From TrEMBL, chain A:
InterPro entries hit by this protein: Aceto_COase_bsu/gsu (IPR016750)
Protein name: Acetone carboxylase subunit gamma
Pfam families referenced in this protein's UniProt entry, alphabetically: Acetone_carb_G
Automatic annotation (TrEMBL), chain B:
Taxonomic lineage of the native organism: Bacteria, Bacillati, Actinomycetota, Actinomycetes, Micrococcales
Annotated organism of origin: Georgenia deserti
Protein name from the UniProt record: Hydantoinase B/oxoprolinase family protein
InterPro entries in UniProt: Hydantoinase_B (IPR003692), Oxoprolinase-like (IPR045079)
Record-annotated membrane-spanning stretches: none
Family matches, as PANTHER family: 5-OXOPROLINASE RELATED, HYPOTHETICAL 5-OXOPROLINASE (EUROFUNG)-RELATED
Superkingdom per UniProt: Bacteria
Length: 162, 731
């Protein structure tokens, strides 16, 4: 059965796994131990003790907190209950005029600010750019992912949610 | 209708189709198979048959490509060959445009449902063709041929071959007919017709093609290629049936499909996370006042494509398009067959890439296509010629939602920001040889891909609809159109920024050559809005494409005088190289290019999209930015502005980079507010309805089609229950 150690998965996360090994990982049979190895690597890297239940983005995890399952950034900032959209607890920079859009997309590359704005969702703790939404003004903020943790752990992994 | 028990003697195909549906509904398994007996009894024999069937269709496609005269099929590989059960369920597919896992199924089932067994009859040697998307394909240029396979008088299956045609005889030249606004302007339709008998194409069918197409040679020779592929597969399948026995063949092929269904469910459980995923994309179509636009289509359109994906505890995948907009008088509508196609060409790349790609996976998925929307117009007179315009952005969202699951489970090597549209240029008029011509220039089959979760996206070499993406050689295209290339170049800054950059798109610049009338038409590019996105902090690719043309550019004269010539749009985003290095006046056109015909001596430029980025651009490796600058993939000024990496020459200025990145972080703090505060501000704006007319119309339409969308919109912006947008007055 295919299996990778924490070094290989750590390199994969960092984007430093050599391409031949990455290609082999892409083309070969998937390893059933991946999730646990992945969690182990991520848990070692974060500076806080709460148990990671599920990563949901770069830098963002659902963790087992003192007051329930919350979304947490690896800087330590908490966004609240994972069943609510973490973006609503973030900071936002909105590029909704041509000047600010053209900082990223100059001249002919720009979208029309009256038809589309760029919303940059930032962690209030470390100001990492966590997600960018490109949407017409007025489009409600998207709740990207609401995992069914019970089904994942109980039905798919065969163990209770920690 | 009384069902005939399919186990009794001589059930009709129609009976068998209905019985199959009933058995699946009752048992949840394909053909009621609860145990893969043949697989368990002798796995080597079972797998051997599958591999041989797969090889047969792959080889037949390769052979067909060499018969075809169309550069779309020969160079770009726009074809696929597949094998089906008698009821029309896909057993095995070749590589190629695997969109057609289920579109050809729909075509075969449609013939069965419409009693083709009785009339026009289904006999050995018959050839049926279809390019009607409401029967079963994606768009008119995807012409499917099928032939039945009879064994000792019994129909035991079908072979299908598909080629994407470069010219279909529509209101504008080419295959993806940009200006089609109703079915009646899309070109030549072949509606599940018997086009051949006794293994030969009928002469009257070929005459119809010759008299209704601008460039019949492509379609006619593609027909011959497809028929050759079908007959080759048919004969090889019959040889295999002789080897394994017909009963074994029939049972094994059913087990392949059931195994495909189980494989799809287990792959979802293995790679993703159960739950609810959401995403969106948008598409702008600016056609108001354009040449040739009919009264009902004379407006600008903004499409919202919100999508929800549910992964059940069983592993079943459901996609819901609730909240998207109405069909319209344009060519971008889609049919349920096309929506199947878009989903399958995506699934075959992410889920079903290593095993039994067949209709089993279709049985493990579900699409909700709301009636009256572009996804399901339920009006068979609408045009679907450029349905990829909305399909591709939509299934790019699908790829990002799937990738969220891959990311959560730790399979970062599978995380992919997704496909983008790749705009088409089609043309017709007077050829360089003096006759009439028409062609879709299929170099669009090589956009930039979205970034991956571990590396940059692919530059100029990926489109979602053809996993073997290839732009074709310039010299080949020059043989078929009255234009010569002045350049084909990577477009700098065309990939979305991020820790990993989206793949770059490219642009071509042509000089019109020896033609007094070249009618160009472009499609599948969004105006005013980006039709893709980034992921996890990456930015979307800049996919708002404009068209640049110069009349009487004076290129030969400039060359003789040794003056600089344009070879691309250039790296200056404010003024193109056409404006700088050509005579005459350069025109910049927004939206589909439906302008005055070009002629000898004119220039025309067309750009293809890059893909979205992944991760925070401030986390991008400075060395990677320096390489991008050195290679012309990004310009130093934009790299510094977005990634904070300052490149001098080919070297990173580390000190300046540190200062620049700190400045960007400061800017983030100073220019941002808590989301709750922004929502309060924006809520006032929404109450005032202070939005562009097209944006307000998009919301009015979505809210009128979807109660859920309307309720969520009002709840999010804390609006009264009776809040709504008014319909815009029609002119």
């Amino acid at each position: 059965m295919t299996s990778y150690d924490t070094h290989a998965i750590g390199d994969l996360i960092d984007g430093t796994l050599p391409w031949p090994a990455t290609k082999q990982m892409m083309s070969g049979y998937k390893d059933d131990t991946r999730f646990d190895t992945y969690l182990e690597v991520l848990q070692q890297r974060v500076p806080w003790p709460e148990e990671i239940l599920l990563p949901i983005g770069e830098h963002l995890y659902i963790v087992k907190g003192a007051e329930g399952r919350v979304v947490k950034c690896d800087c330590g900032h908490e966004f609240g209950d994972y069943r609510e959209n973490w973006k609503l607890q973030a900071r936002i920079r909105v590029r909704d005029d041509q000047e600010s859009i053209e900082e990223i997309y100059p001249g002919r590359f720009a979208c029309d600010a009256s038809w589309m704005e760029l919303r940059e969702f930032l962690c209030p703790g470390c100001l990492t750019l966590l997600e960018v939404e490109a949407a017409p003004p007025g489009f409600p903020v998207v709740f990207d992912f609401l995992p069914d943790l019970e089904a994942l752990y109980q039905d798919w992994l065969g163990r209770p949610v920690p | 209708m009384t069902l005939t028990d399919p186990t009794t003697e001589n059930p009709t195909l129609h009976d068998r189709l209905l019985a199959g549906d009933r058995i699946f509904a009752e048992t949840g398994n394909y053909a009621g198979i609860d145990t893969l007996e043949l697989r368990e009894d002798d796995p080597i024999k079972y797998e051997s048959l599958h591999v041989k069937l797969r090889s047969t269709v792959v080889n037949a496609r390769d052979m067909a490509r060499r018969i075809s005269a169309s550069p779309g099929v020969r160079e770009v590989g726009e074809s696929v060959v597949a094998l089906f059960t008698p009821e029309g369920d896909a057993i095995a597919l070749s590589t190629g445009i695997m969109v057609h896992v289920h579109t050809a199924s729909r075509f075969i089932k449609w013939m069965i449902q419409n009693d083709y067994e009785e009339s026009p009859g289904i006999r050995h040697g018959d050839i049926f063709a279809n390019n009607d998307a409401f029967i079963g394909t994606v768009q008119a240029p995807d012409v499917i041929d099928v032939t039945p396979i009879f064994h000792e008088g019994e129909l035991i299956g079908w072979v299908a071959a598909v080629c994407h045609e470069l010219e279909v005889g529509g209101i504008t030249p080419g295959g993806d007919v940009a200006l089609a606004q109703e079915r009646y302007t899309e070109g030549l339709f072949v509606c599940a017709e018997k086009v051949g008998e006794n293994d030969e194409l009928r002469r009257d069918y070929l005459i119809r093609l010759e008299r209704n197409l601008r460039m019949p040679i492509y379609w006619v020779l593609d027909e011959k290629a497809k028929v050759a592929a079908c007959l080759e597969v048919r004969d090889q399948v019959l040889d295999l049936v002789d080897q394994v026995g017909v009963d074994y063949y029939k049972q094994a092929t059913k087990e392949f499909i059931e195994e495909g269904r189980r494989g799809q469910l287990s792959r979802m459980r293995q790679l993703t996370v159960p739950g609810r995923y959401r995403g969106h994309t948008f598409f702008g179509h600016v056609t108001e006042g354009k040449n040739g636009v009919l009264p009902l289509g004379n407006k600008n359109w903004l499409y919202a494509i919100p999508m929800e994906m549910e992964v059940s505890a069983e592993g079943k995948l459901s996609i819901d398009f609730d909240g998207t907009n109405s069909w319209g008088y344009h060519s971008m509508n889609c049919t349920p067959a096309g929506m199947d196609g878009g989903m399958f060409v995506t699934l075959t790349q992410h889920m079903n890439y290593d095993g039994k790609v067949n209709d089993g996976a279709w049985l493990a998925t579900e699409l909700n296509l709301p009636s009256g929307t572009w996804t399901n117009p339920e009006r068979e007179t609408v045009a679907t010629a450029t349905s990829w315009a909305l399909l591709l952005p939509a299934y790019g969202v699908f790829q990002r939602m799937l990738s969220r699951g891959f990311l959560a489970r730790g399979f970062k090597e599978e995380v992919f920001v997704g496909q983008v549209n790749s705009p088409m240029i089609e043309m017709g008029g007077e050829s360089q040889y003096g006759g009439q011509f028409g062609i879709a220039l299929f170099e669009c089959a090589a956009a930039g891909s979205g970034a991956l979760g571990i590396k940059d996206g692919l530059d100029t070499s990926y489109v979602g609809w053809n996993p073997e993406s290839d732009m074709g050689n310039m010299e080949v295209w020059e043989q078929d159109m009255p234009m010569v290339y002045l350049g084909r170049s990577i477009s700098p800054n065309s990939g979305g920024f991020g820790r990993y950059r989206g793949g770059c798109g490219f642009e071509s610049l042509w000089l019109v050559n020896n033609s007094s009338q070249l009618i160009a038409a472009t499609s599948e590019h969004s105006s005013r809005v980006f039709d893709n996105a980034g992921m996890c902090g990456g930015y979307p690719a800049p996919t708002v494409q404009l068209h640049h043309s110069t009349h009487d550019a004076g290129i030969p004269e400039r060359a003789a005088e040794r003056k600089p010539l344009p070879h691309s749009l250039g790296s200056d985003p404010h003024e193109s190289d056409l404006a700088k290095f050509a005579d005459g006046t350069t025109h910049v056109e927004e939206g589909p290019y439906l302008a005055t015909p070009l002629r000898h001596g004119d220039l025309f430029a067309h750009s293809y999209n890059g893909g979205g980025g992944y991760g925070d651009p401030l986390e991008r490796d400075p060395g990677a930015v320096a390489r991008d600058v050195a290679n012309g993939y990004v310009t130093a000024d934009v790299a510094a502005a977005v990634t904070g990496v300052v490149v001098e020459g080919t070297e990173v200025d580390e000190e300046a980079t540190r200062a620049r990145r700190e400045g960007i972080v400061r800017g983030r703090r100073e220019n941002s507010v808590p989301v709750s505060e922004w929502i309060q501000q924006q809520s006032q704006r929404i109450r005032r309805k202070d939005l562009a007319p097209e944006v307000a119309e998009m919301y009015r339409d979505s809210m009128s089609l979807s109660r859920r969308f309307a309720a969520e919109f009002r709840e999010f912006w804390q609006l009264p229950e009776d809040f709504e947008f008014e319909a815009q007055p029609t002119r």
